[in-house]
Amino acid sequence: MKRWTLDDIPWDRFDPAKVDPEVIKVVKAASMVEANGGTYAHYLAKVFYDDPAFQDAAFQWASEEEQHGAALARWAELADPTFDFSARFEDFKEKVKLPDEIDRSVRGTRTGELVARCIVEVGTSSYYSALGNATDEPVLKEMCRRIAADELAHYKLFYKHMKRYIDEEQLGFWRRLRVALGRVFESEDDELAYAYYAANHLDDGPYDRRVYARAYARRVYPFFRRRHVELGIAMILKAIGVRPRDWLTARLARLAHGFIRMRAGRLARQGA
């Protein structure tokens, strides 16, 4: 797939009349998480210290993630000229850190690390597809289309390397499932919550993880439609070693989408 650059984004089509103020908030937060890709690449390089092929892939992945961050930040600054990405991002990097002196994955095995990375790419690909469908602003819509395609390619990248390690480490279905579920339930973790806080509320008082995790989720969950969830479920099943049959994917997607709608409704009532 041909690599795109910021110059490929149709910035001249930006339409402020079609910007949703609530969308600006989540784009600001996303710009910080994406721009932090280099930190994760250095972590992965330490975990895979004797695997130069994967290290090269990880640094290429990180450069694409950082480009996503730059694109989202530029859009956010167009939509809200008061937003100073550089200053907010400095605070985010200072507060959100990964383990430094390590030589193994926080997931216990390299296979587990790659399963977790697959789950992250499932979430981001689904998220940008959903956001792109939800917005009417043409520049953001085009940007989300490109980023979602990148995230799908990143899933395939991590899946390919995961397959290399499965036989060596013998990480079976149940352990892969445990890692995948653990990463899914980290979707409201400190990284996203603090990114939302740093991007939007840095001057509004002390950070409260629970408050800002809910504030972020309250704005993001309504974007998701059944089709976004179905694609994500199929990708998760593949990552844990289950053939994604249509009936199973549909049933799990119905349950997952029902949970998302219930959670979105509860968060909306709490926000009100």
Describe the secondary structure blueprint for this structure:
Blueprint lengths: L20 H15 L1 H11 L4 H28 L5 H11 L14 H25 L3 H32 L3 H12 L5 H11 L8 H12 L5 H15 L5 H26 L1
Helix pairs in contact: 1-3, 1-4, 1-8, 2-3, 3-6, 4-8, 5-6, 5-7, 5-10, 8-9, 9-11, 10-11
Q: Which terms would index this structure?
A:
272 residues; Ribonucleotide Reductase, subunit A; globular
Question: Would you write up a description of this structure?
Answer:
- By secondary structure, the protein is mainly alpha-helical.
- It has a single domain, classed as Ribonucleotide Reductase, subunit A.
- 73% of the residues lie in helices and 0% in strands.
- It has 11 helices and no strands.
- It has helices spanning 21-35, 37-47, 52-79, 85-95, 110-134, 138-169, 173-184, 190-200, 209-220, 226-240, 246-271.
- Helix 1 (21-35) packs antiparallel against helix 3, helix 1 (21-35) crosses helix 8 (190-200) and helix 5 (110-134) runs antiparallel to helix 6.
- The model has no long low-confidence stretch (mean pLDDT 92).
Give a brief description.
It contains eleven helices and no strands. The protein has 272 residues and is mainly α.
